[in-house]
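For reproducibility, we list the full input for the heme C complex.
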Amino acid sequence: MTTSSSTAAEKNLIVKFWKQCLILFLILLICVALFFFKNEQNNGYILKTLELRGSVNDGNTLFKMNCVGCHGITARGLVGPDLHSITQRLNDKQIIKQVIEGLTPPMPSFEIDPQNMSNLLTYLHSLK
Ligand code: HEC
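The corresponding predicted structure, in tokenized form, follows.
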């Protein structure tokens, strides 16, 4: 009798263990799915931005409103680095990611629509 009840307890433990594994696995799956979803969204955003034609003037205005606090009024650098010749060091995709993803604190991520991102990118290209 004791042996059978202990195996029942063991079985319970095993079921519990697998249930927890399953939950962990599901959480992991959701995280991976969210990661890919976000990536896909950003890819779509980047492609859209690269298709557009930007305006240096509008980009300059955007830069003055959002970026000068850290990169300086002439983009020569302050808290953030000098952005002259940035377009030679980073490709467009990397620059867009830098602006929208906030990967390097203290630089925040910016919510900016593709047209304005394109303007900003064109402005950065105009800095030699
Ligand atoms: C709160 C301050 C802050 C603001 C605002 C900010 N940045 Fe930055 N930015 C930084 C810092 C600090 C870095 C350097 C991060 C690092 O260590 O890689 C950086 C890095 C960058 C880089 C990469 C430079 C390199 O050499 O790799 C680009 C491009 C950039 N910023 C563009 C922008 C643009 C465009 C804006 C405005 C939309 C902006 N930043 C607003 C602080 C800021």
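Residues 90 and 115 are 20 Å apart (CA to CA). The helical segments are 2-51, 56-66, 68-71, 86-89, 92-101, 114-126. Both points were considered when choosing residues for closer inspection.
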